[in-house]
DNA sequence: CGGGCATAATTGACACGTCAATCAGCTTGG
DNA sequence: CCAAGCTGATTGACGTGTCAATTATGCCCG
């Protein structure tokens, strides 16, 4: 009876824009809080991954896979973090092409300072804004979007 | 009875990360499609606003308000779009400080070419991925997040 | 063995976004 | 009227992200 609509309705469009804009607003609010401790979201992502890695070190490519970044993005970011003394780079013993990123003392210290406040911020900005049912629905919606994306 | 939890649970954290990462994935998928026509998301946003404005022109500050951007972001973006011939800048007659952004013929043409495919992409990437109930829930969740953010 | 291909990582060029500083023109209170 | 301050817009510096090219090494097959 009803054929597949070609274009979104006004309401669907509104929700789409809400989705995009709210995501940006939430990320930017979180970035602002992290910034108070001098970290960007990317910094936190890297520090978290390294702090959880055995020996607090990871091959560049493993780190990239862990955080889901492209190599070159990681390379640029590590360069900036190294300049600030948050990480070090070392050569890889088992593969001369390889590089390892090592959590530096300054990086560990700031991560430990920032981690609990950051988790609290996630609760304040995100978890507390939603009912348990909405939170669950969010999980399902994100899963549906990702699965749909993957089917292309 | 139950005091406010200090930190998110594992599950809440998972949903938080899903929310952030899915948002990034969806935006990036959309950006890739627009890119096939040589436009960034920002370009589309500006072209849409201008194409709907009376005379296809807007004062810079009004354009900034319409799309919700900071002035300086808009200024940089308009500079790039002007270089590509998508818009022109003209002086404002009523306020010598002012500048107007005017949709250039090339900008109008590409916008008209891109608009319908873009709307179709929104349906394919976003609307089609969700059930009607999920779509409605998304609207409510985004509203809740924004309202919560505004309360700070 | 060694030429050719794959892989690890970096680099450079460029688009994008934010922040702080700047500049010009409007506006207003004494 | 005019100095002080406000507003519109741009700019420069810098962090960030992507893409394509590059460099160096490992690996495999003939």
UniProtKB/TrEMBL annotation, chains A, B:
Taxonomic lineage from the root: Bacteria, Bacillati, Actinomycetota, Actinomycetes, Micromonosporales
Domain HTH marR-type: 12-147
Database matches in Gene3D superfamilies: Winged helix-like DNA-binding domain superfamily/Winged helix DNA-binding domain
Originating species: Paractinoplanes aksuensis
Protein name: MarR family transcriptional regulator
